[in-house]
Amino acid sequence: MQSALATDHEKRTQAERTALSDARMLDAAVALICERGSAGTTLKDVGERAGYSRGLASYRFGNKGGLFAFIIRSIGDDWLKELRRAVQDKVGLEAIEAAADAHYRFIVEGSDAIRAFYVLWFDSIGPDPELQRVVANIHERRRRDVVAWIESGVAAGRIRPGVDRRGVAEQFCAAIIGIVYQWLVAPDAHEHLRALHESLKHHTALALEAGST
Amino acid sequence: MQSALATDHEKRTQAERTALSDARMLDAAVALICERGSAGTTLKDVGERAGYSRGLASYRFGNKGGLFAFIIRSIGDDWLKELRRAVQDKVGLEAIEAAADAHYRFIVEGSDAIRAFYVLWFDSIGPDPELQRVVANIHERRRRDVVAWIESGVAAGRIRPGVDRRGVAEQFCAAIIGIVYQWLVAPDAHEHLRALHESLKHHTALALEAGST
DNA sequence: GTTTCACTTGCTTGTTGCAAACAAGTAAAT
DNA sequence: ATTTACTTGTTTGCAACAAGCAAGTGAAAC
Q1: Is the CB of A54 under 7 A from strand D?
Q2: How far apart are CA A207 and CA A168, in angstroms?
Q3: CA–C1' span, A58 to D1, in Å?
């Protein structure tokens, strides 16, 4: 029941207490967002579902935007790492294809965390400036990764140097967003999603081989 | 000041009254959604901004989901027509390229209506079933249009018959959604958006010529 | 043809319940 | 003891609904 790193025990350092309540509220918020969407998720419920008082989420995160930014940061960081891990040291098109494959696997695997992450991602079109900043930041990092993969392919002589790195990367990222949207509205259409990812890989390959765009 | 179709006059038929209040509330809601996002838009403000009471929007649309569904339907219908008008009787790739061009023009033109429309579009990932239905419906109609354009190109012998019509159409629509997302987070990056649309046309052309996907 | 009256429909105001936000307090760690 | 984690009390504001008021409608009576 009780593990080495305090799971249920009493005496905890202050840092451990906040880390624990943060983690529990993160879980609670993810579950609630999946159940009721971001608008239907209340700070009160997040606190209570995490096993605390109605006020804790408000106190910790200040407001809904603060909570959402925290969630995006937490999950987004993990996930960028996961994607990079999946790509490992592949270069060029292979790296991009590995990323696309990993993306497909992650979403059909259907973890609540990723779903909540993307639900909040689409909230970033709202007026909350903090959320906008955090998502824009992740977006930019993701795009940079893709540019770097293309770059590595060029460096390895496997992609012609004339290619528009940033253009292709942006197209790729935009397509991913489009696919994610489709996943969110129809999470179980795995075959459809697989086809979209395959098609994306195919089109990206064409863009990196052929033409001048 | 007073036109033939009662603009500011007194005596109105009941149907005219509702049509007028609907139109005014639509305008008000569009403006509010652009200013504050969908979550920040209150039924109270919609009613009052339209020049009525705080309660009217609630009474007319029942709840926020009802209002949003009404907006999507109103603007979405208009817009599908506009897109079709832009495509006219073009066939195959030309039709798709015309649609992409029109799409680009519409969004950089930056009408509040289209922005509000797409903001609500992304709300459809939330739990509101009515909104989901309405958006899914528009999405499906749009996809059908694209399939029909491809079909017409095949019929005209300008696209090879083996092409995966639905697959390419879905890829196209997914990419449009991705582009729209980028527009919503950075509305003024016209050159970037132009490049994304150009790239989309290019990739779609490749998909319709080459390969088997 | 116009007046009247029963009825419908558009709209407003009153009320309740709930969540966000913040302040002030309590308990636990340092 | 003092800082820090967390809770509880309170205010404000919106959604949702109900009850009422006012404007429009249609048909019978005159």
Answers
A1: yes
A2: 7
A3: 28
